[in-house]
Amino acid sequence: MKKVLNVYISGALTDLKNPSKIKKFYENIGNLCESLDFKSYVPHLNTDPIENSDLKPKDIYEIDKSSVIASDLVIAYLGIPSLGVGMELAYADIANIPIILLYEKHKTVSRFARGIPNTIAEIIFEQEEDAFFELKRFLLNWTQQ
User: Fold this and answer.
1) Cut 0.85: pTM above it
2) Which residues of 67-98 are buried (b: 16+ CB within 10 A; e: fewer)?
């Protein structure tokens, strides 16, 4: 029986200009992963800053940190700067978890984050559809290895 891989979907959640659109983007990444038989964890579905405002910062830290460490892959959207995403990437790096980075072509993204040794793909896109196409193609090839 094939092992189900856990994927953590990382992306900014604080002070978003268009929260419903960006959260839907994260959910669509999770849905794509689910369609490929991964189990995805999309943080805002469990620890959203607005919907789950009753959760204390320490609770969020523990929940999301343990979810990152329990994952087999982290997919991180870097198009919006985020301290939380940076921390999630650092924990993934320390735990030697493979990372896929996603961001738009016109965005300036930290070279520090882009230089993480566990990064297995850097998907730079113009339209969201391009991101999904390239991500799906990469994941299908990656799981065949």
Assistant:
1) yes
2) bbeebebbbbbbbbebebbbebbebbbeeebb
